[in-house]
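Input chain follows. Return structure tokens only.
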Amino acid sequence: LIVEFIKKENIRLAGKPSAEVWLGRDTRPSGESLIEAAKEGINSIIGAAVLDFGVLTTPQLYWMVRARNKGWKATEQNYFEQLSSSFRCLMDLTPNGIKVNEEDDKLIVDGANGVGGEKLEILNNMLNNLAIEVRNCGNDGGILNEGV
């Protein structure tokens, strides 16, 4: 039945993989075992290739898949570069003469001890127009969503 299906659907079995599955995970302890289970399943599919990008936010993985499908460079660094570049363009649209005080320039984000806080700290280093204070970033071993 599988061979018939492969012929009917014109699925390639030799050469370049017919499918790529991109994986990312969050920072929960179960993440690593879930990724390994997913890899085993994907590797059992003839002609499929799996790429594990490690710890990513859901938007990062979605952006990377979209970028890959559009033929763009599709790495986590490319994601950060596009996001920070877009933010700088947005800030350039601020009318001249408008001043905000230091308190207004600060963005405070609760990272919920998850991957978002960790990644926001990386983005923060790329933004010079905005001061971001990340609380509960997860670097100190905090429990996901505890006390947020």
